[in-house]
Design a protein that fits this description.
single chain; Ribosomal Protein S5, domain 2; 9-stranded mixed β-sheet; about 25% helix
Length: about 450
């Protein structure tokens, strides 16, 4: 049958008969790539996922105890909700060189005690994989119990799975895999979607746990169609850049555990090492007695962390002042700056403003708004916030302080790390949960309604 040339958007899958600079469907620029397509209108439609079941009521469905395999990498198991569920598909994404292959290889070497592991690489030769395994100082007995394959053809990989019958399959990476019955190049929308669907079918039918490594685009999303993230059970992202010592792994989707949970790893010569007690690691290099620094307790998933916020306000060299932020939402920073200008009549229109959350963590919760406000005020008025004080609270457009969730967990962690005072919204102070045995908080807790009250507390207006 005659083939034809089409142009397919690599972001959303939109198909056009001619090349377009901008996709009409998702508005992405320069995302249409030429592909060869063979019309298949004479063939019946094929389901993306092949497994099915009979109609049944809930009381007739048998209960299975949820068995999980442990990798013994504490942070990794924690993000997954306690381990790996048989038949699950886990997608791991991140920037080049961030440690995706290293983490999957470490997990594979730990899982050999629970079954056969097949590691398939489409990016490295077997010799390169071996040198990397030896660099990780893996036990020689473990090396003999994990199987490696350098292959990109999915049909050959499935044949290897049928022959070896592994319990765990690691694919590095999904963008290098291709199916020979589709003419498009590896990494295109069609190939990524079809290869992922085939691997999902394989995992569900065989109760095979599959790990997929995924490339990311320059915008930070997994390369390929969005349907890839819908097909898999768990989506994990490395958030930090590779220049940071600590690597933050976050669960964006998890059908078998909590979402938005994070794991923290330190990159060393022998691989990624989990940080099992990370509450204080972002405060270890705190600079003493400097304006523009505030300490905030945040919740990442179920884990409390204390972070250092640094702000710098300096005279602008150009007509248009600069606003730069690292680890926090840029638009929300602009909103907080506008609140300060309105409530205190401060002039920032000729000032450059820089805000940084130390350690590379990207914080999405609004509970650190008060910390941003105080760091900016401290830098602008040149006063120093006490080193033993933590602050928390969401700031509204009128300058009011709104409550934060699970304030007791944040206060407990602050106490544990030796802080003496906490500044929180008045609502949280009035609704603090009672501690077991009516135990009192060891730190002094002060509540405020407005940001003006907080600034006045430090002797400024």
């Amino acid at each position: 049958m005659k083939t034809r040339l089409v142009y397919r958007c690599q972001e959303c899958g939109y198909v056009s008969a001619k090349w377009l600079g901008r996709c009409p469907d998702c508005s992405a620029w320069n995302s249409l790539v030429e592909e060869k397509e063979t019309p298949t209108f004479s063939q019946p439609a094929r389901r993306m996922l092949q497994f099915t079941s009979e109609i049944s009521t809930l009381d007739k469905i048998g209960e299975e105890s949820e068995k999980r395999y442990q990798t013994n990498i504490d942070e990794f198991d924690r993000i997954l909700g306690g381990g790996i569920v048989p038949g699950s598909i886990i997608l791991l994404g991140g920037a080049p060189g961030i440690g995706k292959s290293t983490l999957l290889l470490q997990a594979g070497t730990k899982l050999v005690s629970d079954g056969i592991v097949l590691y398939v690489s489409g990016e490295e030769s077997l010799e390169q994989i071996k040198s990397r395994v030896l660099r990780l100082k893996t036990n020689s007995k473990v090396i003999k119990n994990i199987y490696f394959l350098s292959e990109t053809n999915l049909e050959n990989i499935i044949d290897a799975v049928n022959n070896l019958k592994p319990h765990f399959l690691i694919i590095d990476s999904i963008q290098t895999m291709y199916r020979s019955d589709f003419p498009s190049a590896p990494g295109t929308v069609t190939q990524v979607r079809e290869c992922a669907a085939e691997l999902v079918n394989l995992a569900k039918m065989r109760k095979l746990s599959v790990f997929l490594s995924g490339h990311i685009t320059k915008e930070g999303a997994i390369a390929g169609p969005r349907v890839l993230e819908h097909l898999v059970d768990t989506v994990l992202y490395f958030e930090t850049e590779k220049q940071y010592t600590y690597r933050i792994l976050r669960a964006y989707k998890n059908r078998f555990g909590p979402t938005n949970e994070i794991g923290i790893f330190e990159m060393r010569n022998d691989g990624l090492n989990p940080i099992t007690n990370p509450a204080n690691i972002f405060l270890q290099e705190r600079v003493q007695s400097n304006p523009g620094i505030a300490i905030v307790p945040v919740l990442e998933g179920t884990r409390p962390l204390l972070l250092e916020i640094q702000a710098l306000v300096t005279k602008a060299s150009f007509t248009l002042p600069r606003r730069m932020v690292q680890g926090y939402d840029y638009n929300r920073l602009l909103m907080l700056i506008a609140v300060l200008e309105k409530r205190f009549n401060w002039r920032f229109d000729n000032q450059d403003i820089f805000v940084n959350i130390i350690g590379g963590l990207k914080v999405r919760e609004t509970g650190i708004d008060l910390g941003i406000i105080l760091a900016l005020a401290s830098a602008w008025l040149n006063f120093i916030l006490p080193l033993d004080t933590v602050v928390m609270g969401e700031v509204g457009l009128t300058g009011e302080l709104r409550s934060v969730a699970q304030v007791d967990i944040r206060l407990r962690e602050s106490e544990k790390l030796g802080f003496k005072c906490a500044l929180i919204p008045e609502y949280n102070l009035r609704h603090l949960p009672a501690r077991p045995g009516n135990e009192r908080y060891k730190l002094e807790i002060k509540g405020f309604h407005q940001i003006e009250e907080v600034i006045k507390y430090f002797g400024h207006t």
